[in-house]
Amino acid sequence: MRELTYLRPDDAAAAVAAVSGDPEARFLAGGTNLVDHLKLGVARPGTLVDVSRLPMDAVEEVGDLPGPLGTGLRIGANVRNSDLAADRRVRERFPVVARALLSGASGQIRNQATTGGNLLQRTRCVYFQDVTTPCNKREPGTGCSARGGHARYNAVLGASEECVTVHPSDLAVALAAVDATVVVLGPDGERRVPVADLHRLPGDRPQDDTTLRHGELITAVELPDSPGARRSGYYKARDRASYAFALVSVAAALDLAEDGTVREARIAWGGVAHKPWRATRAEEELRGRVPDEEAVRAAVRVELEAAETDDQTAYKTTLVEGATVLVLDRLRQGGPR
Ligand SMILES: Cc1cc2nc3c(=O)[nH]c(=O)nc-3n(C[C@H](O)[C@H](O)[C@H](O)COP(=O)(O)OP(=O)(O)OC[C@H]3O[C@@H](n4cnc5c(N)ncnc54)[C@H](O)[C@@H]3O)c2cc1C
Ligand code: SF4
């Protein structure tokens, strides 16, 4: 039996002080990921700092965001995944976010899971979750069991010798496609991190999933309104119709000129890398073109030039290409997203 201290501070600053001053402390929100890790022995914190009842649970209109319109929504870090997916403003102005959330987990888990916790959930790599196997992410320097092991879910972009796993959050992929920003409170005050820069590639430090420092608390996520965000959608390819993580996923936001050419396309892929992968080369290829199947396939292939696959993962590049064609076609036609 391991002793565990449980704290429930009254405000965010006290929560930050409690975690940043103690290397063995962790924030606890909905607990749907962290509590599993406590049971499995994957996480062994000395102190849990419960932030789930801090007043960070509102979806609010804001008027001072960067972006073409300046307006947007501020989502408190404790807003539950179900509530966020059901919010009328989110469904109308950021359909990609609602759809990504509804494609994840189950109704019960979405009722419990929070916005902040979802973004910071850890990888589902089977070896990471099995403490009897070597894993550089769980125990740096022990090796990577997924190399040469069960590799079907492995990354095809941006992997390293040390780690080949992928990031699991559907929400993070959607947020990357609408240029969302995470608001973070640390011991030195508040800062903002674009969602696209929140998660990192593994390099030689696979134990670090994100660019956050220990003790930094996500307090909110800001979604800037844009014409593309209104015309946005999500597609998730998976082994079962529900309750399954992505094999690959595609989030896209499309702003079209009157002649049907692309003013701006934003495309993010899930299931292919250690972070949501913004397909910026494909986006660039599509600017000024009609995004028909031929143009989208060509643009995706430019992005995938950097992909590295093997027998177990070769399907991912085919799948992500087809899924990107599908999503952009639906958005172009203005049909179901
Ligand atoms: C069976 C199952 C299926 C699932 N399927 C999917 C799926 O298909 N797609 C998907 O995206 N997800 C899926 N999930 C994952 C689920 O979405 C996450 O477990 C959940 O979103 C995590 O949120 P939480 O509030 O419970 O986080 P917690 O478990 O409380 O915390 C997760 C991590 O975030 C940290 N944290 C929490 N809040 C903050 C904060 N405000 N600031 C800083 N750090 C914080 C914690 O310290 C911890 O490290 C599934 C989970 C299960 C159990
Ligand atoms: S892929 Fe990453 S998480 Fe999985 S075993 Fe290798 S080091 Fe661990």
Can you characterise this structure?
By secondary structure, this protein is α+β, with helices and mostly antiparallel strands. Among the domains are: 5-50, Uridine Diphospho-n-acetylenolpyruvylglucosamine Reductase, domain 2; 228-333, 2-Layer Sandwich (Enolase-like, domain 1), CATH 3.30.390. 29% of the residues lie in helices and 20% in strands. It contains twelve helices and twelve strands. Strands 4-5-8-6-7 form a five-stranded antiparallel beta sheet. It has a four-stranded antiparallel beta sheet with strand order 9-10-11-12, with helices on both faces. Strands 1-3-2 form a three-stranded parallel beta sheet, covered by helices on one side. Helix 5 packs antiparallel against helix 8 (170-177) and helix 10 runs antiparallel to helix 11. The radius of gyration is 20 Å and the shape is globular. The termini are far apart. Residues 123, 125, 127-128, 135-137, 144-146, 163-165, 206 line the site of iron/sulfur cluster. Iron/sulfur cluster binds at residues 123, 125, 127-128, 135-137, 144-146, 163-165, 206.
